Amino acid sequence: MNRLLQIVRTFQRARSGTSAVEFALILPVLLMLVFGIVVFGSYLAVVHGVQQLAAEAARSSVAGLSEAERASLASGYVTANAASYPLIAPNHLTVNAATSQSDAKVFVVTVNYDASDMFIYSLPSFVPAPPRSIVRAAAIPRGGY
Predict the structure, then answer these.
(1) Burial of 1 (0-12, 13-18, 19+ CB in 10 A)
(2) Which contiguous run of DSSP H or E holds residue 108?
(3) What φ, ψ does residue 87 adopt, rounded to 5°?
(4) Is 143 left (phi over 0), alpha (psi -120 to 50) or beta?
(5) Per residue, what are the HEC states of 68-104?
(6) How confident is the model over 89-116, as pLDDT tens digits?
(7) How does pLDDT run across 13-58, given as a tens digit for each residue?
(8) Is-contact 57 111, C-beta < 8 A?
(9) Average of pLDDT values for 81-88?
(10) CA dihedral 57, 63, 67, 71 (to 10 degrees)
């Protein structure tokens, strides 16, 4: 019994591997934080870019005289400016521009982005993946009222 007590006391005083054990315990949490920041940071940057494209396309559509011209202006704006957003692939964008169903004086531009090919979906899945489809809309009233 005395020998067992001596082994336990020796084990309690040993400090040579504590740093390695602490690192092994903390590493998964650290990796989850880093991957979470990368994944959701880049995803939110794309969401913001899609929202900006929708808002600016809605603003540019004000110059149109008919609904077809406004839709053409909105689509043209998205096509011309999508390449200026580094994380957005322009060929994955679709634009829908039409008068609002609820108010005939409001023009709504909806931009859909298929984010399936983003690099974040090829990273190890330490954190849950965000949705692969991003849909953002912007509405703008027409006329001088």
Answers:
(1) exposed
(2) strand 106-114
(3) -95, 0
(4) left
(5) HHHHHHHHHHHHHHHHHCCCCCHHHEEEEEEECCCCC
(6) 999 999 999 998 888 889 999 999 999 8
(7) 767 777 888 888 999 899 888 888 888 898 999 999 999 999 999 9
(8) yes
(9) 91
(10) -30
Instruction: Give me the residue label for tokens 């298929």.
Output: 114
Q: 């007590």: which residue's tokens? A: 5
Cα atoms in the 13 Å half-sphere on the side-chain side of 52? 12
Domain locations along the chain: 18-141
CA distance 97 to 73: 9
State how far the Cα of 32 lies from the Cα of 41, in Å rounded to an integer: 13
Q: Give Cα separations from 49 to 82, 90, 119, 121 (angstroms).
A: 9, 11, 16, 18
Q: Is the pLDDT of residue 138 over 70?
A: yes
